[in-house]
Amino acid sequence: MNEAIERILFSEEELKERVKQVGKEISCDYEGKVPLLVGILKGSIIFMADLMRAIDIECRITFLSASSYKNQAHSSGNVEITSILDENTQGRHIILIEDILDTGTTLSAVFAKIKETDPASVKICTLLDKKVQRSTDLKADYKCFDVENEFVVGYGLDYAQRFRNLPYIGVLKPEIYNK
Ligand code: IMP
Ligand code: MG
Fold it and tell me: In terms of CB atoms within 10 Å, which of 29, 88, 89, 161 comes out highest?
C-alpha cells in the first residue's frame, strides 16, 4: 500500500465488481437509446474507462473539464467550465460521469450548462457520493459507493494532482494535507 494512505476503502476487486453492476443498470435503463457519457475531467477517466466497458448497448463518450474555485468571499464555489464538448448534446440522452459528488457545486454548474443545450434527458452517475457535504439539491441517479466525510484518493481521484494512478480508493493520511 502507498505510504500516504491510511487505509483502503475500496479494493480493485470491489471497484471492478460494483462498476460492472452499475454498467448493467445503465444498459437496461437505456435499452434502445444511445446515451452520451460525458466525463468530467480529470477525476472521472478511470471510472469512465471501466464503466463504458461494462455497458453493453451502443453508447458514445465525450469529456469536459470544470474547475471549482473556492475562496472566502464565495464559500459556495465558483465553477469555470474550461472546455466544451465535441459532441452535439441537443436531443441526446446525457449521462454526466463524475468521480465524487461532494458539495454538488461543480455538477450543478455543469448540469445547468448542459440543460441549456436542450438535451432529451440528463442524468448523473458518480463513482462516490459524499452526501454529508451536499450544499445543493443535486442527487445522483447512479452511484457506486457512499463515502463519509474523509479525503479519499486513487482510481482517478487526486490530492494536488497526486495519487490518481492508485488502483484502489484509499483514505489519505491527514499529515499529507496538513503539511
Ligand atoms: P463539489 O463541487 O464540491 O461537488 O466538488 C467535487 C469535486 O471536488 C470532485 O470532482 C473532486 O475533484 C473534488 N473532491 C471532493 N472531495 C474529494 C475527495 O475526497 N478526494 C478527492 N477529490 C475530492
Ligand atoms: Mg473532479
Answer: 89
Q: Which of 21, 7, 46 is nearest to 143 (CA)?
A: 21
CB of 173 within 8 A of CB of 153? no
SS3 content of the chain, % helix, strand, coil (to 5): 25, 35, 40
Give dist(CA 122, CA 15) in Å, integer.
24
**Candidates 96, 97, 100, 101: which one to mutate for ligand 1, based on the most atoms within 8 Å of Cβ?**
100
Q: Is the CB of residue 10 less than 8 Å from the CB of residue 143?
A: no
CA distance 176 to 25: 37
* Residues 66, 6: Cα–Cα separation, whole Å: 29
Residue 157 vs residues 93, 143, 163: alpha-carbon distances, Å: 26, 15, 7
Q: How far, in Å, from the CA of 81 to the mean position of ligand 2? A: 12
Alpha carbon of 157 to ligand 1 centroid (Å)? 8
Q: What is the pLDDT of residues 62-73, one digit of tens each?
A: 999 987 765 444
